[in-house]
Design goal:
alpha/beta; two-stranded parallel sheet; 5 helices; two-stranded antiparallel ribbon; Rossmann fold; 47% helix
Length: 138
């Protein structure tokens, strides 16, 4: 879950599947810089200031709380959440391996669309590395 509309739809679909198959859900968020960092202009020079670890943690908590709200309002009960740093694709795959996941559900496009065009999307990487089936939503 990255907070994008595509990831919100993925959470809704995952909830539906979890209810149908009486499964637990593990929601993971990997905070990333989105390119919307603060910029300071000093003497004509622009300096980009990345968010602090505390700001990333706070934003991540908001994303996870939004996912939990979607899931609980839809009737899902067995929900685990996690916020971890690092490469999103690698961390998602590691979580799937650790949890023994049967399925990874994720949005096809997230908050870093431009970066995905340049270096490959997270969902594409996860699809190639995952130890289980992957389902992407639009």
């Amino acid at each position: 879950m990255d907070g994008s509309e595509h990831s919100k739809r993925a959470v809704e679909l995952a909830c539906d599947l979890a209810q149908r198959y009486r499964s637990a859900l593990h929601v993971i968020h990997v905070p990333q810089h989105t390119g919307h960092e603060k910029a300071l202009v000093l003497g004509g020079a622009t300096i980009t200031v990345p968010p602090s670890p505390e700001q990333l943690e706070s934003a991540g908590r908001s994303v996870i709380d939004a996912a939990r709200q979607i899931l609980e309002s839809s009737g899902c009960e067995a929900i685990e959440t996690e916020i971890v740093g690092g490469d999103p694709a690698q961390r998602i795959v590691q979580a799937a391996e650790r949890e023994g996941a049967d399925l990874i559900v994720m949005g096809r496009r997230g908050l870093s669309d431009f970066g995905g065009l340049m270096i490959g999307s997270t969902s594409h990487k996860v699809g190639h590395l995952a130890p289980c089936a992957c389902l992407t939503t639009r």
